[in-house]
Amino acid sequence: MRVHLLDLSNTGALVHAAAPPAIGAMVDVTCGFSLGAARVAWVDGKRFGLSFTQRLTDQQVRFVIEARDELVERETRRIGPWRNSLPAAAR
Length: 91
Known about the structure:
This protein is of the alpha+beta class and 91 residues long. It has one domain: Thrombin, subunit H (Beta Barrel). It has one helix spanning 58-79; strands spanning 4-8, 12-16, 26-30, 34-44, 47-52. Strands 1-2-5-4-3 form a five-stranded antiparallel sheet, with helices on one face. The longest helix has 22 residues, at 58-79.
């Protein structure tokens, strides 16, 4: 299932998906590498909270954040700053 990771901590994550899993479901969290197993703690519309079965290390969390930052920077250079593509009235 493709999801969007909205927030990440050592103990859990905030996630968005078109069809979230049911509360209590066990999922394997991967984003280029495995972050381990997690239980769906709550669901609210298309957002849901995960509780990791094993606490993530600070290094794992930092690695995911740094990888995201690198991707955003690379894509921004490729397509240009989004702000410049908005009409002047929307800036």
